[in-house]
Amino acid sequence: GGIIGKNENILEHSMTTNMICQILLKELRWDIHTSQLKISMAAFFHDISITEFDEDIEVLESKATYDIDSLKELNPNFFNHPLKAAELFDKMKNMPSDVAQIISSHHELPNGKGFPKGLFGARTVPLACLFNTVHYFCVRCNSTGWTKKSISKILKEMEENFHDRNYEKPYKALLKIFK
Per the confidence metrics, is the pTM higher than 0.70? Predict the structure, then answer.
């Protein structure tokens, strides 16, 4: 609870997301230094604009998906936090420009039902698709627990939607590392 608890949760979530992304980069042989750096930056900045959305985060984590249609009760401002975080990142000097693109799309889904823009997999760059795949997986595992049974269930749930274009390789790599 409180600001310290929330920051610890965001830090833990960022670290877990980054760690799994780094493993996937290696698995996919996309582990060049610039990709590793961009993913790390995105992981640590993607939720930087979250300040007043504790209840919304709890609702988001309790859902079986973050399909926009199932999240109508959330604060409308919550849906803009990826864009706000990307904007804050963009204000920093000498940063890779495509990191903001990863940050701004971290709640997008392959079927176009994510937020804030409802981008389909074909409209999302491969590095962002990798990040989004892992981010979705981590949000779901945070809500259900990191047990072998819940991980298997989440990967099975993801199977239907994460076989879309740019999401397919990251999803298959995620399956491989968690088998």
Answer: yes
